[in-house]
Amino acid sequence: MADQPEEVRRLLEAIDALAAIEDDATCASAVTALLNDWPTHHARLREIRQERVLALRDSGRTWKEIGDLLGGVHASRAQQIAKGLRGTKRPVKGADE
After folding, report:
1. 55-96 pLDDT, tens per residue?
2. Given pLDDT bands bounded at 50, 70 and 90, which one contains residue 24?
3. In angstroms, rounded to a whole number, what is the distance separating the alpha carbons of residues 14 and 31?
4. Suppose 67 and one of 1, 7, 73, 84 were both cysteines; which one would form an S-S bond, judging by CB atoms 3.0 to 4.6 Å apart?
5. How far apart are CA 52 and CA 82, in angstroms?
6. Is the torsion defined by CA of 57, 60, 9, 77 positive or negative?
7. Nearest-10 Cα torsion for 44, 47, 53, 56
8. Integer angstrom CA distances of residue 6 from 12, 17, 47, 53, 60
9. How far apart are the C-alpha atoms of 42 and 17, rounded to whole Å?
10. What is d(CA 16, CA 19) in angstroms, rounded to the nearest whole number?
């Protein structure tokens, strides 16, 4: 966690702080409130990432370089992110059985 940007560290610390709430009802209620709003926050994070990936591409970075900056994702995944495409989810094993 030490090599993460400060903002990422603060978010992870906030999650740890939620887990540390001693009262079970208070903790569960706080986590529920966060999870209820999470789809909006998740969508916004995806938008921010897409905007920045496009800016990196506009600045002359290759898809491979961008993928490496994103934590080692494949160049084709970096292109998908730039297009706003979501990754596909694999079906759960046994779901079709």
Report:
1. 999 999 999 999 999 999 999 999 999 999 987 655 455 555
2. very high
3. 11
4. 73
5. 9
6. positive
7. -90
8. 10, 16, 20, 20, 27
9. 20
10. 5
Report the 10 Å Cβ neighbour count for 78: 22
Could you give the CA distance from residue 18 to residue 46 in angstroms, rounded to a whole number? 24
Q: What is the pTM of this model?
A: 0.78
- The two tokens of residue 54 are 């496009």
Of 25 and 97, the one with more pLDDT: 25
Tokens of 9: 């560290």
Instruction: Identify which of 22, 21, 18, 20 has the alpha carbon closest to the alpha carbon of residue 31.
Output: 18
Q: Are 55 and 69 in contact (CB under 8 A)?
A: no
In terms of Cβ atoms closer than 10 Å to its own Cβ (0-12, 13-18, 19+), residue 18 is middle
pLDDT in tens, 37-51: 999 999 999 999 999
- For 61, the token pair is 């970075």
